Amino acid sequence: MMAWLQLFRIALAPSVIWDGIAGTLIAFALYSSHGGNVEAGIDLGRLCATITAMLCIFHAGMAWNDWRDIAIDRAAGRKRPLVDGRIAPSIGFLAGAILFGAALGITAIWLPEHLSVVTTLCALVAIYDMSGKALRVVAGPILLAVCRMLSLSLGMLVVLTPLDILRTNAHWALLSYGMYLLFLARLASHEEEGLPGHRGVIPVAACTFAPAVMTSAAESWIPFLLGWIIFSAWMLRPALRDRHMEWSPARVQQEVRRCLMGMPMIPALSLLSSPAPTWWAVGGLAATLSVSRMLMSSFPPE
């Protein structure tokens, strides 16, 4: 069981769940503030089905990614389950295929109107996992960004239609999330060889800049700006402290893990900028980070 949890990157699962919840809450708050009928509230059944499908896709992608990178991981000496034999590679690949199928099945039964979005997300994850190094270098960051944007948008689609997402400015949250993933992927591309600290600070600082696009549509300025300042200080402090050092691969991986920990803050800032109660963002983020930190102590997402 421990090997499977490591293979599926269970420590990152709370951030996927938070994508679904935060996306739904952002959409609900914006929809109600623009005169939408919110008497029926949020359909919890649709939300649970959406999150379950999202988790299946995410964990399937992790399994296929490790299957594709077995040779690379073996050369790098990584102790991943498919490399050290705790899980047979063929079984790991099959598990990913089953999870992709489960995501499509859940969507077809309970969320048929979103089947095209989920199918697109599955296809993009599979393309990224199975692509060669050349394609990953060129298109990998874009694919990762689009995948995470679709993940957040699935939560929004519990409440809104695709056209409503554009009408209510919810798309700014998606754009901010995509930018964050682009910069994070840029930093992660140096995990194998390391880089000078002054160059490592750049993508980390860029990640903290990603919420800037939300300022054009922010409706609750004080909570948003306060949250953004706290987030930026937390993200930048270690990177700035080590800016004059040569970052080894291990140091880069440490910074990538920090950025992964900070990723749930982007949907939270989007929620803070909306008309939603502040405690929605604070409570959801606190729960997500607490569970993630606990899981990361045993299953670091490497």
Number of E strands: 2
Supply Rg: 19 Å
Supply the number of structural domains: 1
Strand residue content = under 5%
Give the SSE order as H and E letters. Answer: HHHHHHHHHEHHEHHH
In short:
It is built from 14 helices and two strands; from the N terminus they run αααααααααβααβααα. By secondary structure, the chain is mainly alpha-helical.
Description:
The chain is mostly helical and 302 residues long. It has 14 helices and two strands. The chain has a two-stranded antiparallel ribbon with strand order 1-2. Helix 6 packs antiparallel against helix 7. The chain is globular, with a radius of gyration of 19 Å. The mean pLDDT is 92.
What are its keywords?
302 residues; mainly alpha; two-stranded antiparallel sheet; 14 helices; 2 strands; globular
How are the SSEs placed, and which strands pair?
Layout (H helix, E strand, L loop, with lengths): L1 H6 L5 H21 L10 H25 L1 H7 L12 H22 L4 H16 L2 H24 L5 H6 L3 H18 L6 E2 H13 L11 H21 L4 E2 L1 H14 L2 H9 L4 H19 L6
Antiparallel strand pairs: 1-2
